[in-house]
Every structure is written in structure tokens, then in C-alpha cells.
Amino acid sequence: MTDRLPGFATLAIHAGAQPDPTTGARNTPIYQTTSFVFNDADHAASLFGLQSFGNIYTRLGNPTTAVLEERVAALEGGTAAVATASGHAAQVTALQQLLRPGDEFIAARKLYGGSINQFSHAFKSFGWNVVWADPDDISTFERAVTPRTRAIFIESLANPSGSVTDIEAISAVARKAGVPLIVDNTLASPYLIRPIDHGADIVLHSLTKFLGGHGNSIGGIIVDAGTFDWSRDNKYPILSEPRPEYHGIKLQETFGNFAFAIACRVLGLRDLGAALSPFNAFLFLTGIETLPLRMQRHCDNAKAVAEWLSAHPAVNEVNYAGLTGNRYNNLARKYSPKGAGALFTFTLKGGYDAGVSLVSNLKLFSHLANIGDTRSLVIHPASTTHSQLTDEQKIQAGAGPDLVRLSIGLEDKEDLIADLDQALQA
Amino acid sequence: MNHDTYDDNYIRSILNNVKTIAMVGASPVNVRPSYFAFKYLAQRGYDMIPVNPGQVGKNLMGKPFVASLADIDRPIDMVDIFRNSNAALPLVKDALTLNPLPKVIWMQLGVRNDEACALAEAAGLQVVMNRCPKIEYGRLSSEISWMGVNSRTLSSKRAPVPTQGMRLSLNRVSVSGGGTNAADRAAQIKDDKNNNA
User: Fold this and answer.
1) What burial letters (b/e) apply to A175-209, b meaning 16+ CB within 10 Å?
2) How far is B59 from chain A (nearest CA, A)?
3) Out of A88-97, A150-159, A346-355, B75-84, which region has the weakest mean confidence (pLDDT)?
4) Dihedrals phi, psi of A98, to nearest 5 degrees
């Protein structure tokens, strides 16, 4: 007899969690501790040597955080996950397992501005060279592949433009090149898009956004799809070669299809140290329980607001993939049929000044640098999140001077429309 | 029988029913994967027998090494092959000369030999390939969740605190198929490539 497979909403509530063994507590307790006692010297040695399952020190793992990790792995259809202190920490921790100085990775130009900065400057100082490609022209990815390429990095729904990436087409380029495809799935969440189903080998999130959903905690996560063969050639020695600090064990040989997640934990978290706080893990778990309900409401509200704005005389253009006629609408229907997410941009006929004026006149929308909150948010990327980019980079990233970004929350859509209406008239 | 993917209930029934396991290729070196798989399974209550002709005269966790399956003095339920894929065929042939026959041939993570598998199945044995019994036991009991691994199982029951030598319940609700379709597909592609090479 085969068990009935639970659905997404059931996994969002139950995956990874079960009543606490010692107290019977039904909700996941917050194990707010730095460390865990060993049974004896042999137990300690076997834990440090990666021979036994168990807890050592919260930088390497924590029971509250482990529930979060298993839950997100289950929702994404991966074999394992590793939580980190932020989405940026997830990126550096994941890429550290793949890149040596002098190596390259190909990244879509349309990314969160903070990622463009991290890749262009911090990673360059490590000798990890980013090569940019255009997600609207797959041939630019093909042409960017060299013998030093070690990964391809894209966003499923891109920030701030809300454009939809053709994951399967870029996955085909990655397979041909023999490198893993890394997908930042922050904007979609696994409720809308499961990139592993479309060929992703690693999925990253800023948990801060829709997975947490309430704007109360910073965190990130790395999901291992278990799909990539790290030992096929000598490109990924961290995974295929003996690890001197772990008595010469080979990670893929020992851990099979979750070896990448183990590397991120026992090398990445150990050495870079960007562990998530157990308290934040608890808040993320609470948020994820309602992810399916929230994401659907985010999408439905966003579509209503985008349709209203498209008909407004002060608005030049609304860029929301959920609108019929948008250039990404076909990709949205394919990859994200339940809705095109909560985030979109629009341009104002009045240009830069009209954007600044709108932001200051809004009374319900909050002007801040985040997305994926219960509250509706507004920002003018050219003067904030993307202000450190050159003008050319701003336009390539979809953040021109006349552009305003909205992250639509869970309020009544009529109230959101009324707020925009008064702000555009003021 | 599909050996690219296994139903959780197939693995679960094997791990619930076998008691005596001969591990061929067990290492006395305490940093080798075979050593810690041996140790884990012993701590979870299995009667483990280390088989390694180069180590006869020594003990592994108090169990004396034997040179071959034929040297084991009692019936065994499962042969766990911790050797390379080519070694699996002669080992299965050896196993099939035992009386009584073992019930299960298990080939470790990274070990796969379809000819050996067919031979064992023709004799009525169950076969698992390219899996680690420690990982599968840890997964089905959810003990492995401590490392952020997707156990692909759910339970609303309070679990006892694991102690030394304790068998854990493997009878949780499986989410299998929903969880690692992608990983199973990738493994199949890899197998196809290896078989064609």
C-alpha cells in the first residue's frame, strides 16, 4: 500500500514538526541555546566527525531551525535545506562551496539590487567573477559559458521588475555546461513556483520576505535539490574530494543526494558563521503555516491594483506579468499559474518627480526597503535599493528613474486602490 | 521492480523485519563510512556481523570479523555490500549458496549492479541498490531531520527521546514521491549514462 501524498498546505503546517519528545509541546519550541551536552566522549567525537545525527552548537544546527529547514525542503521538493542569517548569507554560503578564486558564475542581469552589489564587489574581492547575462535572451547565457563557469544564478520572478524567468530554458544551458542552476525563489515562494520541478539544482530564499511574511525577521535558506552529480569531473573538489578536517571523508560519497546541503552546513556555517537565530526560525515557521493563504491573497490583491493602475491617466505603463498583454504573461501562465506574485512596478508620466511625490503622498502604503510583508509597501528604486548602481545598471535591472515598485500586502484591495487614488490626485 | 526509486513501504518493511545483517567491507577504521554505518545500525539494535578477510582476528564494536559470508555461524537476514559495484556479483553468488538463504541484498550508496540484482531477485530475495541503510533508517524515523534533511515523512505523535540501543518507529506517514522526484530522476539519468558508458 502506498501512502496518500500530502498536499502543499498540509506540508506547510506539518513538514519537519512533531510534538516535542520531552514535553509533548505541540507547537515547535524555541530551543534558545548555544550548545548541547554530549552523552560521553565517544558521542562527542562521532558528532564532530559527522558520524552521528545530533546537535552540537547552534552555529552548526539547532532543533528549532532544523524544523524550518525540513519544512522548506519539503515545500520546495528538495532533499535537505540549510538556514542562514539572511538571504545574502545564503548566497555567499552556497557559492563558497562551488567557487575557487578565478572561477566564474553566470548571473541574470535582472536581480535584486543588493545581489548585483554583492556579486559585483564583495564576490569579486574573493576572486569569484560574475558574468552577466540577459534572462530575456537565453543565447546570452550560452555565450557566457567558459571552462571556468561553475554555476548559473537566476531569480524565478525578478526583483524589482516582477518579470518571469524561463527556468527550463536556462536549466538546459546549465545541464549542457555541466554546472548547477541556482534559482532565487524569494518572490514566488514555493506556493507559486517550485523551481526544482523545472530543473533547478539549488534553490535560495530570503526568508525575510514571503516565507516569513510578516516583516518581523531577517533570514535565508539554501535548498539542495539532490539532482547534481558533483563527482562527475573535478570542478567541485569540496564535494568530490576527501575533506582533511573530517578525516578524509568525501561528502558526496558519504551523504549522497544531500551532500551539497551538508557542505553548506559543516563547511559554510562552520567557517562563515552566518547561522540563523532559533527565535527567528520560530517566527518563520509560524509564518510558513499560512503561506498558501497569504500568497493567494497577495496575488489576487496585486492583480486588482495593477488592473486599476493600468487604467489611470497619470500612469504610463504597469509592468505586472499577471496582466494580459504583458510580455511575461505567457511565462507567468506556464510557471506561476496561481498568480504572478505580489510585486510589480509602474512608470509615471510625470517621471522622477511624480514618483517622489506619489511616495510621499501615500497614507496606507509604507515607504521602506522591503517586500513580502502583510502591509503594502512602496519604494522608488532609483533613489533607494538601486541607488548604488550606475544609470545603465539601473535600467538593465528594471529600475529606471520614473519607476515605482509596489509590494502588495494583505489589506482590503479597495483600501489600497483608494490610497493610490488620493496620492495620484494630490 | 524499479531500482531507480523505492517506495518507502518497501524500505520500511525491510528495515522493520531484518534482525541480522552481515556487512561486507566493514572497516575497523573509525573514520570510514562503513564503520559509522555499522556502529549506527548496531546502536539501533541490529545484530551486526563484520565481513572483511583482511581484518580476521580483530573485532568491530566487540563483534569478531569473519573472512566471508560462508564463515558466519548463524542465519543472516541481510547482506549489506560496502564494496565497489563489480564486487557485488560474486558476493551475491556467495550469498545464494547459504542455507538458509538471506532475505535481502542491500548495496550501499554508490553501489549498483543490475546483473547481481537480477540473480538475487530470481532466487526470491529482495534487493536495494545505491542506498545507505543508516540514512534510510534515520530518514524514516526522522532522526536525520536534525541535520535539516527532508525525511519525507510526517507524524502528529509524540516520539520518545532516542537512547542508546533503542529501535525507533519507522511507521510515519510518507511524503515520498512528493519529495525527491527530482533527485530520483537525476539518479536515473546518471545510471543510464553509466550503463551506456
Assistant:
1) bebebbbbbbbbbbbbbbbbbbbbbbbbbbbbbbb
2) 17
3) A346-355
4) -110, -30
Q: How far is B61 from chain A (nearest CA, A)?
A: 12
ipTM value for the complex? 0.87
The predicted-structure confidence for A383-397, as pLDDT tens digits, reads as follows: 787 778 787 887 777
pLDDT at B32: 86
Q: Which residues in chain B touch residue A167, judged by CB atoms under 8 angstroms apart?
A: none
In tens, the pLDDT along B61-111 reads 999 999 999 999 999 999 999 999 999 999 999 999 999 999 999 999 989
**In chain A, positions 267-306, which contact chain B (CB-CB < 8 Å)?**
none
Query: Phi first, then psi: what are they for A78, rounded to 5°?
Result: -100, 175
Domains, chain A, ordered by start: 8-287 (3.40.640.10), 291-425 (3.90.1150.10)
The label of the residue with cell 576527501 reads A242
Q: What angle do CA A111, A296, A319 make, to 5 degrees?
A: 40
Residue pair A49/B130 in contact (Cβ under 8 Å)? The answer is: no
B8-196 CATH fold: Rossmann fold (3.40.50)
Give the N- to C-terminal CA distance of chain B in Å, as an integer.
23
The DSSP secondary-structure symbol of B25 reads T
Distance from CA of B76 to the nearest CA of A (A): 25
- Cβ atoms of A262 and A80 within 8 Å: the answer is yes
CB B170 within 8 A of CB B137: yes
The pLDDT-based confidence of B177 (bands split at 50, 70, 90) is: very low
Domain ranges of chain B: 8-196
